[in-house]
User: Fold this.
Amino acid sequence: MASTSPILLILGAGSNVGQHVAQAFAAKGYRIALTARKAKEEENTSTRVNISSDLSNPESVVGVFTKVKQLLGTPSVVVYNAGAATQNEPKHPFSISLKDFTNDLNINTMSVLVAAQQAVQGFEQLPDSASKTFIYTGNLLNTPFTIAPLMSLGVGKSATAHMIQSAATAYQDRGFKFYYADERKADGSAAFMDISGAAAAKHYVDLAEGKSQGPWQQTFVKDVGYKHFSSA
Assistant:
């Protein structure tokens, strides 16, 4: 008999946020699907599967969802945690090559689009009791704040933030939730290298367990949770 336990899919399962989020949802009874470039598929179990993926190729995302459905079922929570940032010359934002810019945009935005499309198709098949939550790990680069050598990253985060905002508005009546998650310090500044995987995990679980769409831009602080900042 097929398991009725819910399924979490993490695209870009890194060692910090990705692994902490996986552990937190597993503790809640979720079966887990993790994707990474060098996923150890030989370690797959009935409750946790690793899937090799290259998110610089948006067309590959459909295959990831297909494999998750074959191995576990339809995910009710999808977390997009991948990111790419090719540095440009600080005083010359257009020094980045088209190849590198396209690669970053594919990972930061285009593959997110395909993942969201696939997630919605799955959400439509799930019962009303399912979480139906899509979370994108962002940062404050969708705001007027800029980092001179990371123009391509800012472009990707800004574009995807708009996508998430549009989806949060359009799908809320169907019970689908979309969030742009952005960890901050208590003063509203960026967490940057102080990002807490444990804080993200707790917040992502809270978002998934919420019964309705909350603010699409989820600025949150470790040990506090959601906190609105006027600059957000």
Observations:
- The chain has five helices and eight strands.
